[in-house]
């Protein structure tokens, strides 16, 4: 999932959600709460806007978010893919991060190439499924964003 709409500002890690961003996060959280089972872990970027997005998601899922420092905007989708290989056996994962990482990671997992990933509108969610979290091994089950089924 990508974080909700954020205000312009500096430094980038401290940017906060706009009123629209908070509303998007609430809408996505409600949708996720209806879709995701209870055996789930929530990982979130340390950036303020991602942590703000995670709060309603965590409430909807009845869990605490865990900060994962390696999912900031410019982090490597390959490193996250390697990390997923170790974590995938732990059940479902919801990850809240940023563009370009969420698009590149989705492209890597589904198409085998990070440059083939989709653009994520704010608060968009890509639902992936895989037996092995390696490049090109996942299936994109659903892609939703506020205003289109969320």
TrEMBL record:
NCBIfam families in the cross-refs: sixA
Q: Which domain of life is it from?
A: Bacteria
- Return one GO MF term: protein histidine phosphatase activity
Query: Which Pfam family, any one of them, does this sequence belong to?
Result: His_Phos_1
CDD domains named in the record: HP_PGM_like
Instruction: Supply one GO CC term from the record.
Output: cytoplasm
- Its protein name is Phosphohistidine phosphatase SixA
């Amino acid at each position: 999932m990508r974080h909700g709409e954020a205000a312009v500002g500096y430094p980038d890690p401290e940017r906060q959600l706009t009123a629209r961003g908070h509303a998007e996060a609430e809408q996505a959280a409600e949708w996720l709460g209806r879709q995701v089972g209870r055996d789930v872990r929530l990982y979130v970027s340390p950036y303020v806007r991602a942590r703000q997005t995670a709060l309603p998601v965590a409430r909807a899922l009845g869990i605490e978010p865990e900060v994962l420092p390696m999912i900031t905007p410019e982090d490597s989708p390959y490193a996250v893919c390697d990390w997923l290989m170790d974590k995938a056996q732990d059940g479902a994962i919801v990850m809240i991060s940023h563009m370009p990482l969420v698009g590149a990671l989705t492209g890597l997992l589904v198409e085998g190439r990070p440059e083939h990933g989709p653009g994520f509108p704010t608060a968009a969610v890509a639902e992936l499924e895989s037996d092995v979290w390696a490049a090109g091994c996942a299936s994109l089950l659903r892609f939703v964003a506020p205003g289109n089924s969320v």
